[in-house]
Amino acid sequence: MAAVPLRPYRAAGRLLPLLCGGARSKGASLSPGVPGRLSQRRYKKDVLPSPEGPVPSVSITEIRQYLRAQGIPFHDGYSCLHTPSLFTNGREHQLPPAGAPYTLFIDKTTGSFLCTATLAEGTWQDFQANVELQHRGIPPASSEEPEGDTQRAREDARCIWDRALPLWELLDEDETNKTKAMFGISQVTDATLKRFGVRYLRTAKSLVFPWFSPCHATLKGLKLLRVEKRGDAIAYVEETLPRFDCYHNLFGLPLIGRRDTELVLTGWELDALALHQATGVASLALPRGATCLPPTLLPYLEQFKRITLWLGEDLRSWEAAKLFARKLNLKRCSLVRPGNLQPRPLEALNQGLNLTKILRAALPASHKSIVSFRQLREEVFGELVNTEQVAGVKWARFPELNKLLKGHRRGELTVFTG
User: Fold this and answer.
1) pTM
2) What domains, with CATH codes, occur in the chain?
3) Per-residue pLDDT for 6 more than 50?
4) Which terminus, N or C, of the chain has the lesser number of Cβ atoms within 10 Å?
5) Which CDD domains match (predicted)?
6) Are strands 262-266 and 283-285 parallel, antiparallel or unpaired?
C-alpha cells in the first residue's frame, strides 16, 4: 500500500537540543560574513516611552494626518504606507530629505513599522517617539543586543548550518537518490536545491532550510524538516531556530529581484522549490504555512502587483488563502482552489501536471462586479473630506442654492416642486 503524506506539523523541540548541545562555542559568529553582526534592530525599553496597559489602536486616517503634520512624504501601498527611512544615510538626527528612497513601511492596520534598509522596527508609538526625538536633535535609540535565547538560537543555527551538507555533495549517489525519494523530491533538480540553498543534515536525517537576512545575507535561523512513518502514512516534522513564534522567514526572499512584479505564495518550502522549477515564477514559502501571515512580512510583499496564493490542498488552506488575500489587498490577489486536479505544488510536479496551466486558472480574490462595504466606505469618506472637489458647477443667479445643493453635478437631476 502506498504511503500517504500527512500535513507538516511542528515538533516540540526534541531534536535540536541533541544536535546543538555541547557543539556551540562561546564566541561563535552570528553571521557567515560579519562576525557578531546583528541582523535586527529593536528599541531599548528604557529609551522610548512604552504606554502602560494595552497599546492604543490607530486608524489609517490618523497615521496620514500625523505624517502630513510632520512634513514626512509618503504614498499608499497595498498593505502599508511607504515613507523615507528615518534611520539611513547617517541622518538619524534629521527628518528624511526630499528624494530619499521609500524604505520604511507603516502597516495600515496596526501602525507598526519596518525599515527594510536597516531592519529597524517597532510600534506606531515607537515611530512617533523617534520623530519627536529627531525634532529635538536627539539621536535615535541605539539597537540593543538580542536576548539570550535569541543569540543562543543564532549560534545553534550557525552550528547546524556548518555541519549540514548540500544534497549533491553526498559521497554516495545512491544515498542522494534515497534521501530525495524519502522527502518526495525526486523530481526536484540539484540546480533548484542549490539555488535555494537547501542542505541535508545526516545525523538528524533532516533537510535544512536557511533563513538569511534580506539586507546583509547573514544567517538568522533555519528550519529542519524530517520524515516519520506512521503505519501506512508518512508525516513531515518541522523544527525551527529560533522558536516557531519568532521564526519569520519568507523562504526564497533573497532570490527576489527588484523588478519582480509577480509572485506565488506557498505554505511549504518544498512547494516553493517545485513551483520555481516548473514555472520559473518567483516563489516564496510562508514560515508557518497556512496558519499565519505575520504582519512583519507585509513590507516585503509590497513590490508585487500580482500575488497568487497556492497554500495547500485542503479546505483549511483555501480558507486561509482568502483571509490572507484580504491582508494583501484583494485586487492584486488570485487563489488556486484545491482539488484532485490541483493538488499542492510538489504533488502536482510529481504527478506530471502542468503547474503553469494551474496558475493561469487561478481565481481572482475579488470580483469586478461585487463592491464591498469597505470600498464604499472609503469612497464616501473621500467625498466628505474633499467636498470642494466633488462639488458641481455653481449657480450664478441662485447663490443660496449653492449652499444646499453645492451646484450642478454630472449624472444628477434636481427637481423643484411647489
Assistant:
1) 0.73
2) 4-26+147-246 (3.90.980), 60-135 (no CATH), 257-364 (3.40.1360.10), 386-418 (no CATH)
3) yes
4) C
5) TOPRIM_primases (cd01029)
6) parallel
